[in-house]
Amino acid sequence: MRKPNLDKIMDNGKAMFLAYDQGLEHGPTKDFNDKNADPNYIIEIAKKGGYNAIIFQKGIAEKYSEEIKKSKVPLIIKLNGKTSLRGGEQISHQICSVKEALSLGAVAVGYTIYIGSEFEEDMMKEFSAIEEEAHNIGIPVITWIYPRGKGTEGKSEAELMAYSARVGLEVGADIAKIRYNGNKDDLKWAVKAAGKTKVVIAGGTKAEEDKFLQEVKDIVVAGGAGIAVGRNVWQSQDPFALSKKIKKIIFGK
Q: Among residues 14, 177, 198, 247, which one is catalytic?
């Protein structure tokens, strides 16, 4: 097993990822407008904004492969996915293999696990095979870890956030992408619980710019690695100016 090369998607242990897997997860009506529905626009933001990597599902990675290559922005492919149409307990199965992701130019792969779902075990089992295959060839693995389902009932947001981070460490993820509850002290504990697994926070739904930037500052203060942001940037009126502010906070430059 080879040590994953995180330098391809991080800068001195820090990360600023641009996420764009929302089309599959939420549908085009809720999140997109005429401008940001075009993946070329997102690729342009990633390039000009100085992002460490861009996150796509396999379809966009394939259909826009030339544009991604020209941008020279490292590619992360999300290996599982689902729509928002299905009800019930959350589950997201693999729809892209590690081998296919590499053939499409990915330098890292990602996978979502919904802890607390009655299908948690299925996703963990699927992830374990992905993690083993990716690490055998030295490819970093990012795990989206989101508490969902009946198993989360009665648990505090602080507890679930720290649990998410710890699961990232325990299942062998190189980076855990978790949701932030807004409490900096809770976030510090979550980062500590993740041990040597890097923690990035999910950008989440569109928020006021000042509030969003404060969350970015909090992850830095808490010792986290950075952010994987989507809608807060590409739904912004000026995503390039906002990207510059994010970059300044995370990298100090």
A: 177
> Could you read off the pLDDT of 156-167 as tens digits, one per residue?
999 999 999 999
245 annotated active-site: no
C-alpha–C-alpha distance, residues 12 and 247, integer Å: 13
Q: In the chain, what are the domain boundaries? A: 9-251
CATH topology of domain 9-251: TIM Barrel (3.20.20)
Enumerate residues 6+ apart whose C-beta is below 8 A from 54: 17, 18, 20, 42, 43, 46, 68, 71, 73, 74, 75, 76
pLDDT digits (tens, 9 = 90+) for 196-223: 999 999 998 889 999 999 999 999 999 9
What was the pLDDT predicted at 150? 94
For residue 2, what are the CA distances in angstroms to 72, 131, 159, 174?
25, 12, 33, 13
Decide if 177 is catalytic.
Answer: yes
pTM over 0.90: yes
Which residue in the list 146, 163, 180, 198 is annotated as catalytic? 146
Question: Strands 93-94, 80-81: parallel, antiparallel or unpaired by DSSP?
Answer: antiparallel
- Reported as a single tens digit per residue, the pLDDT across 74-125 is 999 999 999 989 889 999 999 999 999 999 999 999 999 999 999 999 999 9
Q: b/e map of 157-175 (b: 16 or more CB within 10 Å)? A: eebbbbbbbbbbbebbbbb
